[in-house]
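Hypothesis: this fold can be encoded by more than one sequence.
Test: take the structure tokens below, design a sequence, compare later.
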């Protein structure tokens, strides 16, 4: 009888312990939403990886990725508190500071902006400065108002007469050898080569002095103040997700990407990953020895001053309110790199 009671007591304690562990686990699974800036693609791969391989769950997070796209308004959802994090960028956050909107970048997944200009291979365009010789540059409105102004301020020969609106089709560029068009390093060159059968000349603005971070983890000051632990865990898990995506088995993540964006292909995904690695989009500069996601004041300040010089921002703007370095540059996840 005593042994039976003893065994019952041990079983009860074990059951209670399991129940408490389950309750603790359930309590730790904070629900978090992250809004991307476009349709699912390899450029979002680390976030999908952290969902697919359980990295977010390991960090006590239940993460929903809210896909962006042409009709999405994820940045507005962040401002209104409908999502917790957004794939922002320094231009948006510094603009928010000027408008009194407390948005803050907490991690910079892309150390380099993937923005490129694309030229024909047989047009005599061998270096970035040569693009000034071309008759036409197909640019989106945002590019015309930002990096084209930066190009005019820093290189001779670029002029407003070159500008023509980019309609997100390569057809006008392909029909005109005296033109170049904007694009993303990881996508448009691939599509142009598929359609035209030639490898275009590609010039990364970041390798010619244009310095914004890209693919940020952006949140609100309220989130940082009220849930700093959640912010830290989301940043850490996302960074680990990116190391896993780049150097581990990313097949499940890619399946999630294709589920969200059925038009995405394995060929495009492979091309994007290869180019991100080749050009150091994610791993370059400070992230090489401080880990993916690193933000520094020096880098952020350099971009702010570039934009002040072309009158995008007011010189008196306190750009330091647009970011914090407290969650990054800790070598998180670097041991995972193979």
């Amino acid at each position: 009888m005593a042994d039976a009671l003893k065994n019952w007591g041990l079983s009860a304690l074990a059951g209670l312990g399991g129940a408490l562990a389950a309750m603790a686990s359930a309590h730790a699974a904070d629900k978090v939403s992250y809004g991307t800036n476009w349709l699912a693609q390899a450029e979002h791969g680390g976030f999908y990886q952290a969902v697919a391989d359980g990295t977010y769950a390991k960090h006590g997070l239940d993460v929903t990725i809210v896909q962006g796209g042409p009709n999405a308004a994820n940045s507005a959802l962040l401002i209104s508190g409908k999502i917790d994090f957004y794939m922002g960028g320094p231009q948006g956050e510094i603009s928010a500071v000027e408008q009194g909107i407390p948005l803050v970048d907490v991690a910079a997944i892309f150390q380099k902006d993937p923005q490129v200009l694309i030229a024909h291979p047989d047009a005599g365009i061998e270096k970035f400065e040569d693009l000034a010789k071309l008759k036409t540059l197909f640019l989106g409105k945002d590019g015309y108002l930002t990096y084209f102004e930066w190009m005019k301020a820093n290189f001779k020969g670029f002029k407003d007469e070159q500008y023509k609106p980019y309609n997100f089709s390569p057809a006008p560029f392909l029909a005109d050898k005296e033109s170049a068009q904007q694009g993303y390093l990881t996508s448009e060159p691939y599509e142009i080569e598929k359609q035209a059968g030639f490898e275009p000349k590609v010039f990364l603005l970041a390798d010619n002095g244009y310095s914004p971070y890209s693919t940020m983890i952006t949140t609100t000051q309220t989130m940082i103040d009220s849930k700093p632990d959640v912010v830290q865990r989301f940043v850490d898990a996302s960074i680990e997700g990116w190391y896993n995506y780049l150097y581990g088995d990313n097949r499940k993540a890619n399946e999630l990407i294709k589920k969200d964006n059925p038009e995405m292909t394995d060929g495009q995904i492979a091309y994007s990953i290869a180019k991100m690695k080749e050009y150091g989009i994610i791993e370059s500069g400070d992230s090489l020895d401080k880990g993916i996601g690193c933000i520094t004041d020096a880098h952020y300040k350099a971009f702010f001053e570039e934009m002040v010089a072309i009158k995008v921002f007011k010189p008196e703007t306190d750009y330091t309110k647009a970011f914090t370095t407290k969650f990054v540059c800790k070598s998180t996840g670097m041991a995972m790199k193979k």
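The chain is about 45% helix and 15% strand. The first strand starts at residue 30 and ends at 35.
Hypothesis status: open.
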